[in-house]
Amino acid sequence: MEDLGRADWQDPKRVACMIESYRHRYGAAFWTALRDMIGASPRMCVVDLGCGPGLFLVDAARLLGANTLYGIDASREMLGQAQEFLETLSPDVSFRLICHDLDQGDPPLGTENADLVFSGFLLHELERPERVLLFARCLLKPGGVCAAMDYVSGDEAAFVDAMTHSGMAEEQARKRYPHMCKRSVDDIMHLFEEAGLRRISACRLGNYRAVVIGVKVFK
Ligand SMILES: C[S@@+](CC[C@H](N)C(=O)[O-])C[C@H]1O[C@@H](n2cnc3c(N)ncnc32)[C@H](O)[C@@H]1O
Question: From atom 1 of ligand 1, which residue's Cα is the shortest distance away?
Answer without folding.
Answer: 121
